[in-house]
Amino acid sequence: MLGPLGNIFQLKDNIKTKRISSYDKTGGNADKIVIPAGETTEIARIDGAGIIKHIWITISTQDPFIRRNAIIRMYWDHEENPSVEAPIGDFFGQGWGEEYNFISLPLAAAPAGGRALNSYFPMPFGDGAVITIENESECDIDSFYYYIDYEVHPSIPKSAGRFHAWWNREITEVHPEEGETEWGVIAQQANNPTDQHNYLFADIEGKGQFVGINYYVDSPGPMWYGEGDDMWMIDGESWPGSLHGTGTEDFFNSSWCPNELYLHPYFGYARIPEKYGWMGRTHCYRFFFEDPIYFDKSLRASIEHGHDNNLTLDICTVSYWYQTEPHKIFPNIPSKALRINMPEITVRDVHKWRHEWRKALGNGKKLWGNESI
């Protein structure tokens, strides 16, 4: 297989390179647009056939949570329902409305401090493309700068799938009777011969191929948040499916409960918590460019939140794939109020947990912390 530079020297006929950007149409230096609070702005409308090759965006606003409060949507070939719908930060690899550097092959958040959002996903269309930004903030986006670089083609092959991206979020529930535990710390763990209670990150109908995921997990406790098997039910098959994983870190191509920054073009950990154990926010990512997940009719993809779904976690994902149209309409994106972060667990909270534990052990004078009830 040729790499990304493998055919750069090949000359092509009947292709034109175009750009839509926020440049100052007067010839001045005010190279930006304003997106008022509560409004949706169309940043690109392209006629005919072509391929979007690169998107660059940077934002200035008084809203510190704009990356979760602004929604990016993309429409192909005059469709009514978007093929891409996600908070703008999450789409480009920035969880929790935060700003931090992120490096991968198709997506990047570049300096200064991750504020430059880039996509290199190729996005083909046969009869038009539209990209919009909805500002659900109470503040105007005072400065929205962007490039959309694309190619104009005479036509697009019928085999060209359309690019899709879907954001999902769930505060997961503890399902097993043994309670919230990993590694059997509290009790022996049960088996999980189903994907019924898993966290769902893809629910697709049509023919296509799954190519990537950004996975943002906020853990309220210090226990390892993983041990969750990824499960793929292709074309309506039953459990255990064609592909069945062995643990969260394995799915993201790492091992042994990592808690360190690591940025590979295809996989990595772009953000890790700075607390005790794995408490706090971790951003994992995985792109399937050498090993896409193919499906002819449908794909249901999910992952356990802890073995046997026994952990309460705040999980948000953006999944990326190509497929034939029409696609299954996405559920309504949760309201702004339902997209806010969960409260941060602090040292004070942990101290209160210890206080309750001491009471459970009779308020002994020299309780250390490793005593069992």
TrEMBL record:
Pfam families, per the entry: DUF2961
Alphabetical list of InterPro entries matching this protein: DUF2961
Gene3D superfamilies: 2.60.120.1390
Source species, domain of life: Bacteria
Name the UniProt record assigns to this protein: DUF2961 domain-containing protein
